């Protein structure tokens, strides 16, 4: 899956909806920035990807929208 497809899937799983264009843009920026910062040479690409998506899901789950969902 591409990063854009993963963002789409994450929003559907957590919020039951697709992300807005602004949310999609912010999410892609988060993913790209997080992966770049994690590229310290000590971890594998696979490990960085896993850490990135773990952090992204944690951010979605900590949001007010998720916590206040009926």
- Measured on Cα atoms, how large is the radius of gyration? 13 Å
Query: Based on CA inertia axes, which overall geometry fits?
Result: elongated
Distance between the termini: 30 Å
Please mark out the parts with pLDDT under 50 across 5 or more consecutive residues, or reply none: none
| Helical/strand content category | mainly alpha
| Secondary structure: helix percent | over 70%
How would you characterize the largest beta sheet? none
% residues in beta strands: under 5%
The count of β-strands is 0
Q: How many helices does DSSP assign?
A: 4
Quote the average pLDDT: 90
Order of helices and strands: HHHH
Summarize this structure as a short list of keywords or feature phrases.
70 residues, mainly alpha
How does this structure look, described?
- With 70 residues, the chain is mostly helical.
- Helices cover 74% and strands 0% of the residues.
- The protein is built from 4 helices and no strands.
- Helix 1 (3-15) packs across helix 2 (21-38) and helix 2 packs across helix 3 (45-61).
- It is elongated.
- The mean pLDDT is 90.
In short:
This protein has helices at 3-15, 21-38, 45-61, 64-67. With 70 residues, it is an all-alpha fold.
Summarize the helices and strands and which ones pair or pack:
Elements (H helix, E strand, L loop, with lengths): L2 H13 L5 H18 L6 H17 L2 H4 L3
Helix pairs in contact: 1-2, 2-3
């Amino acid at each position: 899956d591409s990063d854009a497809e993963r963002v789409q899937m994450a929003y559907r799983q957590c919020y039951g909806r697709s992300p807005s264009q602004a949310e999609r843009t912010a999410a892609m920026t988060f993913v790209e920035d997080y992966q770049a910062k994690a590229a310290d040479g000590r971890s594998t690409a696979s490990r960085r990807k896993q850490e990135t998506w773990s952090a992204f899901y944690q951010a979605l789950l900590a949001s007010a929208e998720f916590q206040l969902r009926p």
